[in-house]
């Protein structure tokens, strides 16, 4: 059962896909002080598809990379016949690998982990196996008869974290990556495990919003304070929470960040970045840094007026939360239906798994 139900290229990569970019802007991109724009589009819910046309993925592997990919694929074709631990606890019970987990083992998944390990086969296999157990342990994957219902990451578990709209999935960037906004100024809770569970929930959701041909996301982080009448915190996350989140992102969501854009960073923010810097993997730290506004990377039709776009977006929790989860559920059901229709094999392309049935016929 899916967890949400109620119950960069490295040196060896030869891909033509645009390299990962982290953009840090010290300049505010807000235009709220300007005169109101004409023709703004009022919106309260996420977009279901990007503005730009869908394109199939271009893998463009070298012979050596193709061989390494096949080695990983063959290993897991045998591995999925086994039972694996239901958690990372010592002497944990084991359970057969679920259809949900097999559907996660896509061609793109194997390639993401291979790129993250610089095309080293054994470390790739080790990391994927660790991620599979982590997903069970953390409540992302529900193992029947074993998962603690109180720890399964569901909309109900994390909803209180998002009543202010501090995390939003709205629109797609120019390369069809779904945009996940982290609005630091709308923080409404104290540091806790649930904050981490909430971010993992939103990561899993934004992955569901990825269109065929795209397996990366755009992370747009805005440090602007919320309006004073909301009386919300604009503190930076605690160092312990930040370290835990970085560990999860680097180890269990490798190569998912296609673009990172930061804006309205206060002076103290740079001190915070220096503190967490040592915990960020060297490849991420070496990403190119630009000083450009969001409108350079996101079509104006799907960008809020706050960033010089054409949307007049308003977060109404009861409206947004329900629709975001409905869209995510619908997209995931299509993904799993395609997985079944295509033979429930591991190593399928996410491009085929995400397509509409009539498109894929």
TrEMBL record:
Every CRAL-TRIO domain range: 157-315
Domain of life: Eukaryota
Biological processes per GO annotation: Golgi to plasma membrane protein transport; negative regulation of phosphatidylglycerol biosynthetic process; phosphatidylserine metabolic process; phospholipid biosynthetic process; positive regulation of phosphatidylcholine biosynthetic process; response to xenobiotic stimulus; sterol biosynthetic process
Keyword annotations from UniProtKB, A to Z: Endoplasmic reticulum, Microsome
SMART domains (UniProt xref): CRAL_TRIO_N, SEC14
The UniProt record lists the keyword Endoplasmic reticulum: yes
Region of interest (Disordered), ranges: 1-31
Organism of origin: Candidozyma pseudohaemuli
Record's protein name: SEC14 homolog 3
Keyword Endoplasmic reticulum among UniProt keywords: yes
PROSITE patterns listed in its UniProt record: CRAL_TRIO (PS50191)
């Amino acid at each position: 059962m899916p967890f949400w139900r109620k119950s960069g290229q490295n040196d060896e990569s030869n891909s033509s896909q645009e390299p990962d970019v982290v953009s840090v802007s010290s300049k505010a991109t807000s235009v709220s002080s300007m005169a109101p724009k004409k023709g703004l589009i009022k919106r309260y819910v996420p977009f279901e598809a990007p503005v730009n046309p869908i394109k199939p993925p271009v893998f463009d592997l070298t012979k050596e990379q193709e061989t390494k990919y096949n080695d990983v694929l063959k290993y897991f074709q045998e591995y999925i016949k086994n039972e694996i631990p239901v958690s990372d606890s010592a002497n944990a019970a084991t359970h057969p690998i679920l259809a949900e987990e097999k559907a996660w083992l896509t061609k793109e998944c194997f390639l993401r982990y291979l790129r993250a390990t610089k095309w080293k086969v054994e470390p790739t296999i080790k990391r994927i196996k660790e991620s599979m157990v982590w997903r069970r342990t953390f409540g992302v994957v529900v193992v029947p008869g074993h998962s603690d219902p109180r720890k399964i990451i569901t909309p109900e578990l994390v909803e209180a974290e998002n009543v202010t709209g501090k995390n939003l999935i709205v629109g797609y960037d120019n390369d069809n990556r779904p945009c996940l906004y982290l609005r630091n100024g709308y923080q409404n809770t104290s540091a806790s495990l649930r904050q981490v569970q909430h971010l993992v929930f939103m990561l899993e959701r934004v992955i569901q919003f990825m269109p065929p041909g795209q397996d990366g996301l755009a992370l747009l982080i805005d440090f602007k304070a919320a309006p004073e009448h909301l009386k919300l915190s604009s503190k930076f996350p605690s160092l312990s929470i930040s370290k835990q989140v970085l560990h999860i992102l680097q180890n269990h969501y490798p190569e998912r960040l296609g673009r990172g854009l930061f804006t309205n960073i206060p002076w103290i923010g740079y001190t915070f970045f220096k503190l967490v810097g040592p915990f960020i993997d060297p490849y991420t730290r070496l990403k190119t840094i630009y000083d450009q506004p969001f409108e350079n990377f996101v079509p104006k039709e799907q960008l809020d007026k706050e960033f010089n776009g054409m949307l007049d977006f308003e977060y109404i929790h009861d409206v947004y939360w329900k629709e975001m989860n409905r869209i995510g559920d619908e997209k995931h059901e299509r993904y799993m239906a395609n997985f079944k229709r295509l033979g429930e094999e591991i190593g399928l392309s996410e491009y085929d798994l995400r397509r509409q049935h009539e498109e894929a016929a």
